[in-house]
Amino acid sequence: MNMMRNLDQSHVDQFESQLARVKQLWDKNLSSLGVKWPSSKVKQAQLVGLSFFIGEPVNKDSLGWYVGQVAGGAADTQARHLRSDGWAILLSGRGEPHSNTLASGERMPRGSYALASLAQPDATFLRNERLTREGRAGAKDWHELCVLYKGKCAHCGATTKNPDKGHMDPNKPATVDNLIPLCVPCNNWAANDVIFGPDGRIVAVRSERFLKAADKAAQQRIADWLAKQ
Predict the structure, then answer these.
(1) Which of 24, 115, 225, 228 has the fewest C-beta atoms lying within 10 Å of its C-beta?
(2) How far apart are CA 186 and CA 160, in angstroms?
(3) In a 3-state reduction of DSSP, which class is residue 163?
(4) What is the b/e burial string over 77-91, where b = at least 16 CB atoms within 10 angstroms of the residue's CB?
(5) How many angstroms separate the CA atoms of 159 and 149, rounded?
(6) pLDDT tens digits, 161-170
(7) What is the DSSP secondary-structure string of 57-85?
């Protein structure tokens, strides 16, 4: 297992020059891909501290000390938040292999962070940015489709970890372009009786179920309309 690196006073002394170097590489490689430059001094200190040892685990306590020295105040070790801004941060624990595995194939040691690259963003962030631009047409599989809907039921908006594969049009095959994530109650309610649009709204019905449930006046209006067609 790789030894964890520790930051010291020499790295504190190099903060400004290292910050300029990291920003230059961000401008060159990452800015156009949507990676956000850290606006706070704390996040900048976290990023710079990890950048001294690209691809190597840095002791979390050491990073906290560094942030305290550079940014002042309480030591902040929550460098994982940089991942949501697009930075390729590795951390110990569960997750996709790209988020917790070093280039050597070893898992990240507990109590450490690493910056994998200043040339490429976090793979999940890059995928999500692409999907945001391309929309449903860019989803290659069910997982990416669920990412687009942000883990929510397309119809009612409820958060659901394991959504059902609802058909937008039950007449058509269950291909990615015809699927929509639905919570279990919505999928059970819809059955094969409705057709959904991409936004989860009902655009058509496929059975007499709703007509039977309507009051007599509504049924008569529908019958009159059908007679004129």
Answers:
(1) 228
(2) 11
(3) coil
(4) bebbebbebbbbbbb
(5) 10
(6) 899 999 999 9
(7) -EEHHHHHHHHHHHH-SS----GGGGGGG
